[in-house]
Design a protein that fits this description.
33% of the residues lie in helices and 20% in strands. By secondary structure, the chain is α+β, with helices and mostly antiparallel strands. It has one domain.
C-alpha cells in the first residue's frame, strides 16, 4: 500500500480496567467487531501491550515521525514501560 506508518506502545491491558461490562451488547456491533470481541478475554490478555498506530500518506515519513514524537511527548511521565519477560 506504500503508506508511511509507525507504532507507539502506550500502555498495557489491565484485567480490571479493561474487562467488558456484564451487560455488553454484542448485537450493536458489525461482524468484524463481533468476532474480535468474542475472543477478547481481559484476564488472559492481562499485561499485553496496547499501542497507537500513526499512518500517513505515501512519502510522508517525516510527518509520521513528527506526529509520533508529539504523541510520545503528550504521554509525559506515563511513558510505556517494557514488559518483564520471565
Amino acid at each position: 500500500m506504500d503508506y508511511a506508518c509507525g507504532i507507539i506502545p502506550v500502555t498495557h491491558v489491565d484485567r480490571t480496567f479493561d474487562q467488558l461490562p456484564a451487560d455488553f451488547d454484542f448485537r450493536k456491533l458489525n461482524g468484524v467487531a463481533k468476532g474480535a470481541y468474542k475472543l477478547y478475554d481481559a484476564d488472559a490478555m492481562h499485561g499485553l501491550p496496547v499501542a497507537v498506530q500513526i499512518v500517513g500518506r505515501r512519502l510522508e515519513e517525516e510527518k509520521v515521525l513528527a506526529i509520533m514524537e508529539r504523541v510520545e511527548g503528550m504521554l509525559g511521565d506515563a511513558k510505556y514501560q517494557l514488559m518483564e519477560i520471565d
